[in-house]
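User: Show me sequence and structure for the first protein, then do the same for the second.

Assistant: Starting with the first protein.
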Amino acid sequence: MSLLSRLFLVMALLAPSSLLASEAEKPVERDYTLVRAADAPAGQTADQAKAKSVGCVSCHTKTDAYSMHKSEAVVLGCTDCHGGNATISAPTNAKEGDRAYTTALSKAHV
């Protein structure tokens, strides 16, 4: 192991945890044993899959898309795998942290 690698390892071990985690985000307690979702469909149209993602991508705009799969052979909507309610969209002009945004987020997520 090179001296530089050792130095980075020591720095990583000594770094305060507050530098490694967001202070703005707090975990939300959820009981996932209560969630009962249907299996992802074996087949569906692109429009059916898009309907299962439309609300999701109203908030998840920067990194996500209607399908995270590179292959067009995989036709799934967000809620097929992740659950939630894709009929809930981001409120118009609401920003993250606003009451309306937080309410919509709670209704949309599992």
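Switching to the second protein now.
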Amino acid sequence: MTPTKADHHTLTVYYRDKPIATHTRSWERRKRVELPSHREAAKKQQRQIWRSQEIAAFISLGEEAKTYLERLTATNQPVKKNLRKLLKLKDEYGSFALIKAIKKASIHNAYGSHYIENILYQDMTPRKYHPPVRVKQENLNRIRLQEPSLAQYDAFVIKRRKDHD
């Protein structure tokens, strides 16, 4: 929850003890007060999130992952936090198990990394986890690679078998 302070005339919103927005106080019930510049800044931030390497790595898992992420975003949960956890679960349990858990969660409209973690925990024991090597340059630790498509390999093998027959 975002901390706020209010008096009879203004409302101030704080983030990490610093004021980030001040609005004229409205006494109307359920009225949303926001500045157009704040809305634009939020949209810009959302677009930046969707361009991240983590998003690309997650979406490379397939259409189920992409759809799950879109629906997760619609729940107004913290996307980055959930995405990092989902990618960590992929590393622990493998891509196949993660997609299986995503399909199961989607059936029940359960969106959030905690749901996926619970499903994976209930369904299986994680494979042996070897954490990635950490280097001093933090930006290098955030690099994520897209999951390779095995369909291309399968097509190559089938074609090769046909050529040899």
